[in-house]
Amino acid sequence: DTVRANQFKAKYLAVGDSNKSITTTKKTVAFTGDAKADFGTEPTTFGPDNSRIETWMSHDDANLYVAWQVSDKTPWVNGATGFENLYACGDTVDFQLGSDPGADKKRGDAVKGDLRLSLGQLQGKNTAVIYRKVSDEKAAKTFYSGVWKTGYTMEFVKILDSVKIEVKPGNGNYVVEAAIPLKDLGVNLKPGLKLKGDLGATFSDPAGKYTSLRVYWSNQATGIVADEVEELKMQPALWGEFGLE
Fold it and tell me: Which residue intervals of the chain are DSSP H helices?
């Protein structure tokens, strides 16, 4: 009951800033580990000092390029043994997107076109995992927690091998740069395209086995950890907006 009450409290106190927006540049990015130089723009910065996150985005006709620089005392560690639980077991960077520009902007639950891409180190290998709550193509997995005993099903969960990932761990921080094919995101570029989405990172506990903190650019209802379903669910109503011009 206490866990359930805290979940309701987090949702009711959540503040969604629908005015947040990022306009991406059009640029093909070569990765060197210096994200600011690679992207040639100032970052979008958020999070407290000890878990500060800087992000960059750009695109060309084939790929979306995203970079994260994350302040972290134990950089780029993750205790997951299965790819589907990467987000719940330590350090990951996270990209969430609604690829359907016609979807209800105030939707509380994920719909067709909504996705989450979680990037982390899975048993020593940099890995990208895509989650879709509603999908025509099926690769379903069901997740459980102390509250969600009947389970919460994602219709499509799969390693996305097409994502190019470069990681540069540092002293108290790390940089992740990723090239994500637009076709895998279901994005069709057109002038003035604006899509809802979010960027963030999860942080490991000191032992590097579980996620102990979640920090996002737009969604502030991220206080719940130690619950694999609540940590996984997308909340599109609390996303910001990406301009893909």
Answer: 2-13, 35-39, 182-185, 228-232
